[in-house]
Amino acid sequence: MIEVNGLKKSFGEVSAVRDVSFTARDGEVTGLLGPNGAGKSTTLRVLYGLMQADAGTALIDGFSVEKNRLETQSRIGVLPDTLGLYPRLTAVEHIHYFGRLQGLGEDQLERNTAGLIDTLDMQGIAHRRTEGFSQGERMKVCLARALVHDPGNILLDEPTNGLDVMTTRSVREMIMRLKSERKAVLFSSHQMHEVSSLCDQIVIVAAGCVVAHGSPDAIRDKSGCQNLEDAFVKLAEGSPR
Amino acid sequence: MISIRQMNIVYRKELLDGIRDKRAIFTAIVIPLFSPLMIYFLFNAMIDLREDLKETELMIAGASNAPDLVEYMRQRNVKIVEFEGDAEQAIRDKTYNLVMLIPENYASRFSRSKPVSIKLFSDSSRQTARAEYRRAERMIEAYARTIGAMRLMARGVAPGILDALEVREMDMASKEDRSASALKFIPLFVILSAFVCGMGLAIDSTAGERERFSIEALLVNPVKRSSVVLGKWLSASTLAAVGSIVTLMFSFYVMSLVPLEEMGITFKPELSVMVSLSLVMLPLALFASSLLITMATFAKSFKDAQSYMGFAILLPMVPFMINQFSPIEGSWTYLIPGFSQQTLMENVMSSKSTEVWQYAASALSALVLSGVMLFASTKLFSGEKIIYNK
Question: Less CB within 10 Å around the terminal CB: N or C of chain A?
């Protein structure tokens, strides 16, 4: 479970996050929705334990990210917005490196790696160096290394950005699979259709504040719009700038 | 606190990644491979120069005019060759370095105790010609002084009356000193290896990690930043240490092929010497890598880091350069990384006495400074800026 309460973060003069609170429950998919620059990535980075919030709390399974960084980091699987890989390591070597850093024993590591290669359909690229991988192949390596320690909470920053139809579909399948395994899945996006089909709960962020929070139906009702995209535009534009 | 397990994971990954980096490995092998070759050619060139001096050949035109002088020179290891033709032309054509001309009136003037002028044709712009010229000149002057003394004695005057003052050169350079100056190159190349061999890995694992954006995913893992920095540092240090020891091994092998004794060098490239030199080197490899890691972490990009590296190599050279103008001495110099290793290695190779405290001071200062560097780069790694550049 991921809980965020009254989060605030600014960079010099620019305040990226003013007031963000929400809860992502186990067994649910939560979508963090907002236009570019709304503060989605900053919120996620605070949850990764890589940024210090100016105010507010972030909890993973009840542990404070700020006070128990290492504990919370072993409970999350993260797909950052940049798919940074080591070009001279193979896909499996990437998965092993992260699994070991997460503290897995060698037996467990081999089992989890084999399972992920199977699930993500990576047999063809498993022992190839990642130099020259397509965007879709890179995405699979990043997903596999993020999930190798079987974390209870998954955070994905714009996971389908720039992907082809096939890979987008396999990412969606992965998200539904993680949901069925009773994990808390939190992902950010600025694409409405993606969020509405996947999410149990939507958090709309604009200019660093949460402007709406609830199920897709509740959001439609609140804005008075039939279409979720119209609702998003109306809510996002109505926010204080 | 440091987690040894995590440090080891990072260390093994970086080493594997580093060894596969063709560009980095290419820079790493250049010095270990080429410096022994350079030493080989340098030593051989030095031997050739000395042999030139040993067997001087002197071209003399009109040798038959002064059999006494010619005989005097022949006794002093000079091979006399009769010269016929235009002396000036022979020098200009670079056929010979030196031609001596004895005039036909030598005998008649000599017997009347009149000065005889002997001409030495040479080109002073030629480095090798100068040595030959000075040798011939000194010999003629010595002969002239002997004859002059004999003439004075024949007239009942003490010959010492002409020498109001006398200069005697007391060359205190020992055999060890002479070999040390020839052997200086080896520590220099070895120290350079310590800085250059780990450089590719140091840049790629820090500035490269940032540039590829892999750092965000890496630091999301529950690892202490100090473990990450130490793992990267030790992997760069491994390449630095291996590189400098390989340079040392190759240099020793090459020296066993060079006839050192002919050069008056008493040094013998033995295994025990190599082991103690390696021990002197190891702390420097650790320090050099900590310096490179810190600078590359501080750099904003890969390119930025590469431009800092020139400066990083220059840094340990600064004491050497100062030393050229005004020698730096004293026990405190054993605290300067790079310089202390150079001094120790030179002393070991020229079989001068070394003391335990010198090794200890040299190693300790390198290790303490490494600690300072690693503390700084751990601080850099702990900030948000290193990941998000804001």
Answer: C
Closest chain B C-alpha to A166 CA, distance in angstroms: 24
Measured distance CA(A124)–CA(A19) in Å, rounded: 45
Q: What domains lie within chain B, and their CATH numbers? A: 4-47+175-388 (no CATH), 55-162 (3.40.1710.10)
Nearest Cα of chain B lies from the Cα of A106 at a distance, in angstroms, of 12
Statement to judge: residues A46 and A96 lie in one domain: no
**Closest in A11, A48, A73 to B390, CB measured:** A11
φ, ψ dihedrals at B60, nearest 5°: -125, 125
SS3 A181: coil
> For B333-361, what is the mean pLDDT?
86
Q: Which residue of B has its CA nearest to A138?
A: B214
Do residue A158 and residue A133 come from a single domain? no
Q: Could you tell me if A203 and A107 lie in one domain?
A: no
Which residue in A50, A74, A80 is closest to B222 by CB distance?
A74
| Residues in chain A within 8 Å Cβ distance of B388 | 45, 50-51
Cβ <8 Å between A71 and B9? no
Same domain (yes/no): A174, A241: yes
Residue A42 shares a structural domain with residue A118:
no
B369-372 LR contacts (CB < 8 Å, sep 24+): B369/B287, B369/B290, B369/B337, B370/B233, B370/B283, B370/B286, B370/B287, B370/B289, B370/B290, B371/B290
ipTM for the whole complex: 0.93
Do A111 and A159 reside in the same domain of the chain? no
CA terminus-to-terminus distance, chain B:
28
Query: Could you tell me how many CB contacts below 8 A there are between chain A and chain B?
Result: 73
Backbone angles phi, psi at B254, to 5 degrees: -60, -40
- Which of B290, B297, B285 is closest to B205 using CA atoms? B297
Mark out chain B residues that contact chain A at CB-CB < 8 A: 6, 9-10, 13, 16-17, 20-21, 212-224, 384, 387-388, 390
- Over residues A68-108, the pLDDT tens digits come to 999 999 999 999 988 899 999 999 999 999 999 999 999 99
Which residues in chain A land under pLDDT 70? 238-241
